[in-house]
Amino acid sequence: MKARLDDYKQSEAVATAQQRQSDRLRVRIKQELKDLLGKSVASQNAVLVLIKLGALGGVQHHRLESHQVQQALKRAKVRFHPDKVPADRLEDKIRAEETFKILNSLQVTG
Fold this sequence. Notes:
Helices cover 70% and strands 0% of the residues. By secondary structure, the protein is mostly helical. It has one domain. The relative contact order is 0.13.
């Protein structure tokens, strides 16, 4: 019984440490994305967000129509979807989650 209790306490300690590491990574990544994207998220400028994320490729953004922006946004959402990112590194997974949240917050009208 004591061994089971010790195992439980040890697994709880490991889980807590992993959660703290995840939280620290999330804070750092949110700040990095905020620095990268700046006011383009607050202003709902989907084209600028897609450009800064490198999701438009070689398309000339000043000639994009709204349906092209919607298609590019959809491709970016697939690219950054947390379930599509290999789970090899926790940092990559968290970065995909935070980027996906930003992409989901964007509204494209037209």
